[in-house]
Write a structure and sequence with these properties.
Rossmann fold, 12 strands, single chain, 15 helices, 370 residues, alpha/beta, six-stranded parallel beta sheet
Length: 370
């Protein structure tokens, strides 16, 4: 029987529930851990999302703890490869740099995984010194995993194409028969964190125009607030515009509640212009729910949502375009159903958990055999 290759898997687990932690949870419960001997080093920070990107004592402590954990495993285990999620900010990249440095000192293969789409902008805006560091890290990287082909293109001139693997997000979601929570309402769902660049304000600003076309419309906004100030502004806007009857707020929706909301919805709207966006999990969830999707050409979203096929791509910061597409889908029932069916079929063909895990296994195997 062939001996399993040993890999060190540096990655955070939930909570909090966000892209990287969801991915880790899927990998660690999948056949990936039967394919390889996986030594997992949990790099989690259990604090709220508001701590992301900050430098404080706890972040320094956690980084040092993880460096020593990696060093200990490298000294005591027969390791072939080290898997390292990589950041796309200066602070985050420099925090991850010692992981790469330690792996290379011990002559281990290195797989970096970028879970976003901002890296080229990060590189172009960096100082000359930082660019030298970035190029050096990529030069010593055996394989880079990205979320889509459009992100792969961001690395032209930085790393050879044959060392890049594309692994879109994928997870298993099962829905019972879709239900009408309110049979006489048409439900538009926004589901994400309430960060301004996720586009929730543009969705909110579309309510007036859409409600004038059909007063049976109901918008559900579900997610977590980044701060209380934004929440107060949200509530104030609803009252000022007198649209309370059309807007329902669900805070901190958990897994089962999220699935119910996706099951009840007629349209999913996510007009993100978040600069670090990659392949949002909510897009995969909306496709699994068989929903037409209104979104933007951000990250590699256009590789999942094809304009005119399973939804619409609208410009960022454009509430009028959002309203127009919602009204169009309200008026054209058969077209809306057709788009929803295409969403579900595309999900089944490309974005299930099995697709995600298989691509991850292939990326690791390609690295080990090279």
């Amino acid at each position: 029987m062939k001996k399993k290759e040993t890999i060190i898997f540096l990655a955070p687990t939930p909570p909090p529930f966000m892209g990287p932690t969801i991915a880790t949870e899927i990998i660690l419960r999948s056949r990936f851990v039967r394919q390889f001997h996986v030594i997992h080093i949990d790099t989690c920070d259990r604090r709220p999302l508001s701590n992301l990107g900050k430098v404080d004592f706890m972040n320094i402590y956690l980084s040092l703890k993880n460096y020593f954990s990696l060093l200990e495993k490298l000294l005591t285990s027969d390791v072939e490869l080290v898997y390292i999620p990589i950041a796309q900010t200066s602070i985050g990249f420099l925090r991850d740099l010692p992981f790469v440095f330690l792996a290379k000192i011990f002559r281990k293969k290195v797989v970096l995984h970028l879970r976003g789409g901002y890296f080229r902008s990060f590189y172009d805006k960096s100082s000359q010194f930082m660019r030298v560091i970035i190029r050096s890290v990529l030069k010593n990287t055996d394989r880079l995993i990205v979320l889509g082909n459009s992100i792969k293109e961001l690395f032209k001139g930085l790393i050879s194409e044959e060392r890049i693997s594309v692994v879109p997000n994928g997870l298993d979601i099962k829905f019972n028969n879709k239900k009408d929570i309110e049979p006489n309402s048409f439900i538009v769902l926004y589901l994400s964190n309430f960060a301004e660049t996720k586009g929730y304000k543009e969705v909110l600003r579309s309510v007036n125009k859409v409600s004038q076309f059909n007063n049976k419309i109901k918008y559900i906004f579900a997610g977590s607030w980044m701060n209380e100030r934004d929440k107060h502004k949200f509530i104030h806007f609803i009252k000022e515009e007198r649209i309370e009857r059309y807007v329902h707020l669900v805070e901190d929706a958990r897994k089962e509640e999220k699935l119910k909301l996706l099951s009840y919805a007629h349209i999913f709207v996510f007009p993100t212009y978040y600069p670090y966006e990659g392949h949002p999990w909510v897009i995969v969830e909306a496709m699994a729910a068989g929903l037409p999707i209104i979104t933007t050409d951000t990250g590699c979203i256009k590789e999942s949502v094809v304009d005119g096929e399973n939804g619409f791509i609208v410009p960022p910061n454009d509430s009028d375009s959002i309203a127009e597409k919602i009204i169009y889908l309200m008026k054209h029932t058969e077209e809306r159903k057709r788009m929803g069916l295409i969403s579900r079929k595309s999900y089944e063909n490309s974005f299930t958990e099995e697709h995600f895990v298989q691509r991850m296994i292939q990326a690791i195997n390609c690295t080990l055999s090279s």
